[in-house]
Amino acid sequence: xxxxxxxxxxxxxxxxxxxxxxxxxxxxxxxxxxxxxxxxxxxxxxxxxxxxxxxxxxxxxxxxxxxxxxxxxxxxxxxxxxxxxxxxxxxxxxxxxxxxxxxxxxxxxxxxxxxxxxxxxxxxxxxxxxxxxxxxxxxxxxxxxxxxxxxxxxxxxxxxxxxxxxxxxxxxxxxxxxxxxxxxxxxxxxxxxxxxxxxxxxxxxxxxxxxxxxxxxxxxxxxxxxxxxxxxxxxxxxxxxxxxxxxxxxxxx
Amino acid sequence: xxxxxxxxxxxxxxxxxxxxxxxxxxxxxxxxxxxxxxxxxxxxxxxxxxxxxxxxxxxxxxxxxxxxxxxxxxxxxxxxxxxxxxxxxxxxxxxxxxxxxxxxxxxxxxxxxxxxxxxxxxxxxxxxxxxxxxxxxxxxxxxxxxxxxxxxxxxxxxxxxxxxxxxxxxxxxxxxxxxxxxxxxxxxxxxxxxxxxxxxxxxxxxxxxxxxxxxxxxxxxxxxxxxxxxxxxxxxxxxxxxxxxxxxxxxxxxxxxxxxxxxxxxxxxxxxxxxxxxxxxxxxxxxxxxxxxxxxxxxxxxxxxxxxxx
Lengths: 253, 310
Hints:
The complex is a heterodimer. Chain A is mainly α. Chain A has helices at residues 3-19, 21-43, 55-86, 89-93, 99-128, 136-160, 164-180, 193-199, 203-216, 223-247; strands at residues 49-50, 53-54. In chain A, 77% of the residues lie in helices and 2% in strands. The two termini of chain A are 25 Å apart. Chain B contains ten helices and 14 strands. In chain B, the strands form three sheets. Chain B has a six-stranded mixed beta sheet with strand order 6-7-8-3-9-10, sandwiched between helices. A four-stranded antiparallel beta sheet of chain B has the order 2-1-4-5. The model of chain B has no long low-confidence stretch (mean pLDDT 87). The chains are: A mainly alpha, B alpha/beta. At the A-B interface, helix 1 and helix 4 of A face helix 2 and helix 3 of B.
């Protein structure tokens, strides 16, 4: 294992974040604050409790997940797409590094940023609505598991994409709809029975449900299934990345 | 016996589209030499470098770099190799020092500010160490790429077209840098399509065309073989045919009839120019102007492929 390479990649990626601190941190915090103002304060004050929790507090886990998924994917996909686009990928491909160093370096940095952002959003939320965390350790576990998994997914998108448009396609066309329909702003109990069944095929439901359980101790789906589904997706992503680096698909000719 | 630092054995590469870029290439690079790989665009130079450095997967064959198989033992092999690519691909927003430090780490070496300073000073980049790469000129960016490739103290350095698109002054600077590197014990493999560059720099020259290594020779030997020159004479009056008295000379009359060209061996003591001019005078052929040039690499390739000298 080339530990120096992991450190170099990780530092390089973190430096990129701090260089673009406004886009990396301030923008997502601002957009989440707007959600709290509109859904939490303006609309939430006219709504009753959902699952025994005030609506403003109810949406926190979903909003954290929304940011976490979006940021993990965009951080990691951009991190690996940029050297492909600029041509500096030659250096990574000719370096004494295997898939382990590359994944730990790039995905580790992307996940770190997402986790920091998740914590920042939690702090921002505190300004707008009161909340308590029933299972703080599980909350951190979900933050880490989700950030790492979706950073890997973003990494795959970055490897696959060969244009900036493609880089945006999956997050916009797949991840955003799944997150909005994953119960970020409502409980799936509120849906008609048919749509409740359909919703269970949405993987994001399990993530948001698990996160909500960590906050309030109640969940729409069993938390074990939530963790299992996320971990399963992480393994799938890891297999895909290993395949890409072993075969050189989209990287080498 | 001189030991090889790079051994390329039976390497072939066929791209997915069916293009066969390398055809069973065998090549031994000697430790400490400057080896120039010459060839026209699309000959397979960059593909061969790509295979050795790990950017391209060979269809068959093996490559050993400083004792390590570049596939089976890629970590050890790649730690010995530095690559300066043809394209000026840089992290535009990074500073010079940061990008060189990054490269050192990526290639498995502990941070060493003193070594980075040494490399930057040697390439006259030290004053620019805190400058963002995007603010540098093309020549400076090329130096940054060299600094990156040298950051991990490689024993083998690949320079892919180091002087493509570089002005004359910078080209001479680049040649000096390469000589200094060789003096420090680094083996250098450079590709070029400038024959003059190979002549200036290399100890040995390999000529590649259409994926095949046609010739690998010591420079002196090869330059004698390839170093044909051509004298072009502009004629006052149009000639319909080469005068019979000049039969047997390697003369060629341009279709316009106003130009006569004479091919001769530039390395030879007797080029035959004096005798030719005298004979032309006797034959009543008047000359307006004249110039000489080297046979182009294209001509040389045509000659090599046809099995004759250009």
